Automatic annotation (TrEMBL), chain A:
<protein>
    <submittedName>
        <fullName>2-oxoglutarate oxidoreductase subunit KorB</fullName>
        <ecNumber>1.2.7.3</ecNumber>
    </submittedName>
</protein>
<dbReference type="InterPro" id="IPR029061">
    <property type="entry name" value="THDP-binding"/>
</dbReference>
<dbReference type="Pfam" id="PF02775">
    <property type="entry name" value="TPP_enzyme_C"/>
</dbReference>
<dbReference type="InterPro" id="IPR051457">
    <property type="entry name" value="2-oxoacid:Fd_oxidoreductase"/>
</dbReference>
<dbReference type="GO" id="GO:0045333">
    <property type="term" value="P:cellular respiration"/>
</dbReference>
<keyword id="KW-0560">Oxidoreductase</keyword>
<dbReference type="GO" id="GO:0030976">
    <property type="term" value="F:thiamine pyrophosphate binding"/>
</dbReference>
<dbReference type="InterPro" id="IPR011766">
    <property type="entry name" value="TPP_enzyme_TPP-bd"/>
</dbReference>
<dbReference type="GO" id="GO:0047553">
    <property type="term" value="F:2-oxoglutarate synthase activity"/>
</dbReference>
From TrEMBL, chain B:
<dbReference type="InterPro" id="IPR002880">
    <property type="entry name" value="Pyrv_Fd/Flavodoxin_OxRdtase_N"/>
</dbReference>
<dbReference type="InterPro" id="IPR029061">
    <property type="entry name" value="THDP-binding"/>
</dbReference>
<dbReference type="GO" id="GO:0047553">
    <property type="term" value="F:2-oxoglutarate synthase activity"/>
</dbReference>
<keyword id="KW-0560">Oxidoreductase</keyword>
<dbReference type="Pfam" id="PF01855">
    <property type="entry name" value="POR_N"/>
</dbReference>
<protein>
    <submittedName>
        <fullName>2-oxoglutarate oxidoreductase subunit KorA</fullName>
        <ecNumber>1.2.7.3</ecNumber>
    </submittedName>
</protein>
<feature type="domain" description="Pyruvate flavodoxin/ferredoxin oxidoreductase pyrimidine binding">
    <location>
        <begin position="15"/>
        <end position="211"/>
    </location>
</feature>
<dbReference type="InterPro" id="IPR052368">
    <property type="entry name" value="2-oxoacid_oxidoreductase"/>
</dbReference>
<dbReference type="InterPro" id="IPR009014">
    <property type="entry name" value="Transketo_C/PFOR_II"/>
</dbReference>
Amino acid sequence: MQEKLFAITPGLTEASTHYCPGCHHGIIHRLVAEVLDELGVLDKGILVEPVGCSVLAHNYFAMDTIQAAHGRAPAVASAVKRVHPEAVVLTYQGDGDLAAIGCAEIVHAAMRGEKITTIFVNNAIYGMTGGQMAPTTLEGQVTATSPFGRKNAEAGRPIRVAEMLATLDGPKYIARVAVNKPANVNKAKAAIKEAFTRQIRGDGFTLVEVLSTCPTNWGLSPVKANQFVEESMMPYFPLGVYKDEEGKQ
Amino acid sequence: MSEKILIKGNEAIGEAAIRAGCRYYFGYPITPQSELPEYMAKKLPAVGGVFLQAESEVAAINMVYGAAAAGARAMTSSSSPGFSLKQEGISYIAAAELPCLLVNVQRGGPGLGTIQPGQADYFQATKGGGHGDYRLLVLAPNSVQELFDLTVEGFDLADKYRMPVLILADGALGQMMEAVSLNVKTAPPVAKPWAVTGRQGRKETNVVNTLSFDKDASEQTNRDLKQKYDLISRQETRCEEFFTDDADVVLVAYGITARIAKSAMEKARAQGLKVGLLRPVTLWPFPAADLLRVAGTAKAFLVSELSTGQMIEDVELAIRCRKPVYFYGRTGGNIPSTEELYQQIVEIVNKGGN
């Protein structure tokens, strides 16, 4: 009898995702689903999904889901958690959704110490709308709306969300991870697990920023895209734990 | 004996909401409605409810979206410029068919305008306001008692039809104090099997979503909404009529303006003039059929609003231009006096109603 080494996790449906080849959303979805299953909270999970490529995440997660307006997932999630304090509530947001149009909502949800978890997928570009500049686009990076490369003098320097939110008192756990290679995937899973464990414990706001690829809009092969994460993104967006505070507020 | 108290309009809305079982209030301060969030901040904790002051009106309406999706009775309130900021969220709530109560205590606009009363958000309230094909059930109280009663009823209507219900008030109503009977008649609770609660053993997931890439499914959503709105038009259209049976001139006004119009009508009647009043209680659905019936006997209509003329369009449509429609509006925070409206009536009567 052979041992089963890999199976569909109960946290995900059997639907095939619409994500582009080489995109990291599939990996990140899987990690979140595995963690919620391992923590035994799938039945209590409520996903608030963003606008962007993961706007269809409700097709993939086997969880109750609310589709939020662009950027507003943290406000929606704040209310959901107040109505169902026993639920495990997460927002899954991209960098345009969270760091541009929804910057106020994430800052204030974090400031209030809402007992929710945000999975923040940073791929330095707008994916779904066709590769425009994001607040996280790197200096010099060419996008559809920075055709000559992002100029800091005009667009400012890219927002480091994990570092920014770590200055607030409300968050209890903030980490930046990547899923560009197996070792990083394992670390990312551990960070995601820690974030949800803190939420279940009632500590406060938790966020895991995941550096991610967008091969299609970056114009790179999946392999080159993984290299871009390592060589171009990580120097500006260093991996690590930015907030790790014990105890209840 | 019923419990009766002297209470400010804005606070009466809050008291009514709590008695109607609303336990979640999300809002952002703006004059002239801030007594309402203040009241909720003070009173909700004692009944196990949540008052949350949002970082913006945009966040507040999206919190309402979340709480309503989670199955709770939730509300928000604001005044004109703040209400404009909520429009995107209201469109989402209407599309997702979530029940909730919205309150707009109108001020003078446009822009930052003034903190004095206005009724110039009529178009925004009754014609959609946000993007897409949707309607709100719009209730227009004209007293503090009605602010109380229609707030209670608004929650029931929201649950019954799974849609946002708007209390369209104004700064005068919000700020005035009147005696209010606190009798609450609520409908039995409505089951919400669609609510997002976490699966809790359910096999299928509950999803609140307003996006569809399928144009046929998207069209069907709009057709389904239209069908619901048609049903509401048949079942929930309401107005109040005074002396419309024999009136030559019929005043049409809602909210605070309807009270002034009523005084002007009474003065005219005392002078032997045949004047009536039709007061829409629901602004959407609009009492078009009632107006058309009245147009069979009336010689002319006089519409009065705190705007340069918005509801007048619905009145003209309703009576299909069969009789002349005159307009008298004060705007920018001003309200007409009884005498001003009476003079308008006299002028129309002197013209023979034509």
